[in-house]
Amino acid sequence: MHLKIITHEKVVFDEDVDEIYTRGTDGEFGILKNHIPVMAALDIGVTKIKKGEESKSYTTMGGVLQFKDNECIILTTTAECGDDIDVARAEAALRRAKERLADKDASIDSKRAEAAVARAMARLKATLNN
Ligand code: ATP
């Protein structure tokens, strides 16, 4: 089956793959060859791709996945390969966002801080690729 990951800026991934695992708004799910057609909204998380013994993890920050006739398309705002992620930056972002969430100040935008936590955690998970 074939997978394309497309952002606003470019086609990030365009290859034949064996297995796809991602995080939808209803939870994590996987797709193997000959899966029935799927249309799913994606959450902030990691999309893991396997081909033979090789695997790669990309952050996928929301968007949509469509699978039909062994063609999968992921349209997402940001897709970063785990190999390209700056771990120290993601850890700092996670710390900052958690501090904001712990702050009782009413002016804190908690939804925004929660999204920042989710992005940082997805980045750290993508670097592990497991
Ligand atoms: P930060 O506070 O560290 O900027 P953020 O979650 O606010 O984190 P985003 O707004 O999601 O960052 O991303 C801004 C840009 O920086 C995007 O191009 C994204 O790919 C890049 N980026 C963010 N964090 C990292 C990271 N840890 N490693 C590599 N690139 C990153």
- Computed structural class: alpha+beta
Strand content: over 45%
- Distinct small molecules: adenosine-5'-triphosphate
Overall outline: elongated
Walk me through what this model shows.
With 130 residues, the protein is of the alpha+beta class. 27% of the residues lie in helices and 46% in strands. Strands 1, 2, 3, 4, 5, 6, 7 and 8 form an 8-stranded mixed sheet that branches. The longest helix has 19 residues, at 110-128. It starts with a strand and ends with a helix. The structure holds adenosine-5'-triphosphate. Adenosine-5'-triphosphate (ATP) is lined by residues 78, 80, 85-86, 89-90, 93, 116, 119, 123.
SSE topology:
Blueprint (H helix, E strand, L loop, with lengths): L1 E5 L4 E6 L2 E6 L2 E6 L5 E14 L2 E15 L2 E5 L3 E3 L5 H16 L7 H19 L2
Parallel strand pairs: 1-7
Antiparallel strand pairs: 1-2, 3-4, 3-5, 5-6, 6-7, 6-8
Helix pairs in contact: 1-2
Bound molecules: adenosine-5'-triphosphate (ATP).
